[in-house]
Amino acid sequence: MKGKEGISRKEIEHIAWLARVELSKKELEVFSKQLNEILAYFAKIDEVDTEGIPPSHHVLDFSNVFREDEVESSMSEESLRNVPQTKGRFVRAPRMT
Fold it and tell me: How far apart are CA 35 and CA 14, in angstroms?
């Protein structure tokens, strides 16, 4: 967000172009309003004094709740018999453009 003026319609059009999304004029107006409201809310949050408050990464006191990582074979030789093309022990796929 640039200062107090917010995000311009031209910037939203550029973001839509980057995302390869076509937006109507009405959608541009709606998204412009919504994005500027969101940015204004973040600006309001920035005003909160957080001096002396330790950083936290999660609101709940969870440590790792996932299983331990274990190295396992991912694909058997038998599974490679069903693929159309292989290169060594790898599956060969068509080139994506």
Answer: 14
| Rounded Cα–Cα distance for residues 66 and 74 (Å) | 19
| Amino acid letter, residue 25 | K
pTM: 0.48
pLDDT in tens, 21-44: 999 999 999 999 999 999 999 999
2/32 Cα distance (integer angstroms): 14
Ranges of H-type helices in the chain: 9-18, 25-46, 77-80
Quote the tokens at residue 74: 């991912």
